[in-house]
Amino acid sequence: MRPVQPHPTGRTVPLHEKVARRFWIRRHCPLCDAKAGQDCTDPGAPGGNAVRREHGHDERIEPIVREREAATKAKKAREPEDRRTQRGSASMVPHYRLMKISCPVCHAKPDAECTLPAGSHQARLDILFRYRSGNGGRRRR
Contact, 120 vs 91, CB < 8 A? Predict the structure, then answer.
């Protein structure tokens, strides 16, 4: 299965669509010298007044896009390998608690992983949830 392209037409996304106005308006524009809180302007006709732009200049928006890309890249570098491969993510149970229980299906000992490639058997999870529910491991009627 191929990854889904955000724009199947191949259209490049303009910067003003990537960053909301409320973020770029807080910054100074290096091109038109608009202060934070002011809209960007284009020079109008010679000798005339400046014309307000509908969107900010790319030079004002680009740093925000670069900061976000750098933050995403740094976050991915910090994620553990299991998180990136989605290994064991279906259980959403803390690994250290689940590993204290032996598996009744594949007979994995405590502190050993089940033989499933995607994580732990459901029976192992059920035992943990029954244990954590506080009724002494007995099922409710």
Answer: yes
Instruction: Write down the pTM of the prediction.
Output: 0.50
Distance CA 81, CA 88 (A): 11
Q: What is the pLDDT, as a whole number, of residue 111?
A: 74
Burial class of 39 by CB neighbour count within 10 A (0 to 12, 13 to 18, 19+): middle
For the segment 102-133, what is each residue's pLDDT rounded down to a tens digit?
A: 777 787 777 777 777 666 777 777 777 776 66
CB atoms within 10 A of CB 68: 13
* CA dihedral over 71, 72, 76, 77, signed as positive or negative: negative
